[in-house]
Amino acid sequence: MQLSINRESLLKAINLIAKAADKRHNMVILGNIKLQLSDSELILTASDLEVELTSTLKLPAGACVEAGTTTLPATKLKDICKSLPAQAQVNLATQANERCLLTSGKSRFTLGTLPSEDYPSLGNPENITPLTISRNRLTDLIHKTQFAMAIQDVRYYLTGMLFDVSQQQLTTVATDGHRLALAVVLSM
To answer: Rounded mean pLDDT of 112-117?
Structure first.
């Protein structure tokens, strides 16, 4: 894989998804960002196995020198890009020994890579139901159920809220194990 890209474009995409990279490193590869390079676009993916964020960059002609995929350490890549001067050109080139050479001007960095085939994917949802709801209605639904959510509980699944979308109905449900709240909007 070999790429030449503007620092601002790359940094903007990294900033959008880097929050999803696993900081605890339960699996080492989850501390990385997956880069998939084709002739026309760069797809960056970060995940912690609960949340997966993807950013797609349309590339100008000549930006992709050689298509391919790899994974790079999320924090290091972000820090390096932030430290480069504005409007700098960033060049990424993978090497045979599980390394990636990042160059920009006189700067040179060698980053360790992991095989992109090992990067877990949450997959694409099969049944997508489009939803359009006003901000006021959504806020009202959340306010009607959020009081029942657990705040600090070992049972982490109780610290969230269920959003159930079926036909033209949105239902929110929250519980802390002692109380249950449910709110419904019938037509959106």
So the answer is: 92
